[in-house]
C-alpha cells in the first residue's frame, strides 16, 4: 500500500510560528529549518501497529515515522531542543490522524455593543461580532465585569478599574445568564460567575455552537446538519483535504476559540498576561488544542477530562482495559461524522490502539502553560485519567517543569460532588471554585483553599496528590507503560 507523505514544512509550521520557543533554544531553529523541505512518512491508520501501552512520546520522526520503539532508525529525545521539534511533530500527527487541518485565521469585526446590564455586583456587556470570509459568520460574547458602582476591595491586588485577568469559556447558552443549572450549552451560572468576579477576574463566555453545531445533539441520520451549517459552508469540508479542509467539529471549535482571543486581545481592560481558558467536557478538547499553539494563553482549566483510548474503565463486571468510551466509540462513529477528521474514523474502524497518541500527549502539548484537570470521580473514567496524568508527569519531569507547590504546572482536582439531578458530569460549584483557586495560585502566587472545594475533594486539596484507585480485587492497578522520562539537557 502507498504511504501518505506530509510535508515537513506543514508539520513544523506551528512550532516555527512560536518565536519565544525558538529564541529560548536557538539550536531548535537551525535544526527545524534544516528539515523544512524534507518529508515525513505517516502511514494510514490502518497500517499502524497496535500500541497496547501509553505510547512513548519521546521518539523523534527524523528519518521515518516513529511513535514506537519498534520502528527502525529512531532517535529518542535527549535535549529540550529535540523535544520542541518532537512537539511540533506530535501536533502534526494530531492533525493527520485526529483533528484535520483548519483554515488560516480570519479577521474579527465588532458589529455592535449592547447596553450594559447590572447583575448583582457584576456588569454584563454583550458584543456582537463576525468573522470568516467577508465577515459572514456571526458570533456573540458576554463579558461579566466588576461593577464599579459598588466599590470594594479586590482580591489578588487587582485595581478596581482594571486591567483584569480573564477566564474565557465556550459554555455560553443563548439565554441570559440566569441560573446555576447546567446542561448542553448551559451558561456557567450566576453564582459561579459572581465568585470569579469577586476575586477580581472577568468572565467571558461565547457559544461554541456559533462556530460548529454540537454533533452530539443530532442522531446519526441528521449528522449532515452539522457539516452543512455554521462555519463549514464558508470553508468547505473535504475529507481528503484537496478541495477544502479536512477538519471537523472540534477543530472548528478550537479555531473559533482563537478568534475569540483575537478580540479579547484588543480590549484595554483585560490583563493580556493573564488570559486563562476553560473547557467543559467536549469543549476542553477544543480549549486544549488552542493552548498547544496560542502563546497568548497563560493557563487552562480542563473540566470533565477528555476520555482516553487506552484506559481502565469500571462497569458491573469490574475493571476493563480498554473500552474506548465516548471519545472513540461514540464520537468516532459514522453518526458523529463531524467530530473528527477522516483518519480518526478509519482508526476507529480498525483499532483505536493503533493511534500513536493518547491523553498524555494531549496534555503534554499544553506544556509549559499552567493546566488544571478536574475529574468527577463518580461519573467518568477516573482511573484511566490518573494513568494519563501519571504519564504526563513524566513529560513534565523531563522538561524540568514543577508539578508541586504554588508553581505547579500540572494541577489535578478529583472531586466527589454530584450536583442535584444525580449527574456529576457538569460544572458543579466545587469544581468551579477549585479551578479559580488554582488560577489564584499560579497567576498570583496566592493560596486560597475554598472550603466547599476542599470538602468535596477526593484526597488532599493541594492540586498534586491523589490515590491510585484500586481495582475490584483491592490491588493497585499497574501502570500501563514501560517507559519513563529521559533526562533532557
What does this molecule look like?
The protein is α/β, with parallel strands linked by helices and 489 residues long. It contains 14 helices and 16 strands. It folds into 2 domains: 4-99, no CATH class; 109-455, Rossmann fold (3-Layer(aba) Sandwich), CATH 3.40.50. The protein is 30% helix and 18% strand. Helix 5 links the parallel strand 9 (164-169) and strand 10. Helix 1 packs across helix 4, helix 4 (80-99) packs across helix 10 and helix 5 runs parallel beside helix 13. It is globular. Mean pLDDT is 74; it is low at 1-39, 63-72, 149-154, 173-186 and 312-337.
Q: What count of helical segments does DSSP give?
A: 14
CATH arch. level architecture of the largest domain: 3-Layer(aba) Sandwich
Instruction: Please give the CATH class of the largest domain.
Output: Alpha Beta
CATH homologous superfamily classification of the largest domain = Alpha/Beta hydrolase fold, catalytic domain
Descriptive labels:
single chain; 489 residues; 2 domains; ten-stranded mixed beta sheet; two-stranded antiparallel sheet; disordered N terminus
Summarize the structure.
The chain has helices at residues 8-16, 19-24, 26-34, 80-99, 190-198, 224-227, 249-264, 282-293, 325-330, 342-350, 359-364, 382-399, 429-444, 451-455; strands spanning 4-7, 39-42, 59-60, 75-76, 109-113, 117-119, 122-131, 137-146, 164-169, 202-206, 270-280, 299-303, 313-315, 318-320, 370-376, 410-415. It is of the alpha/beta class and 489 residues long.
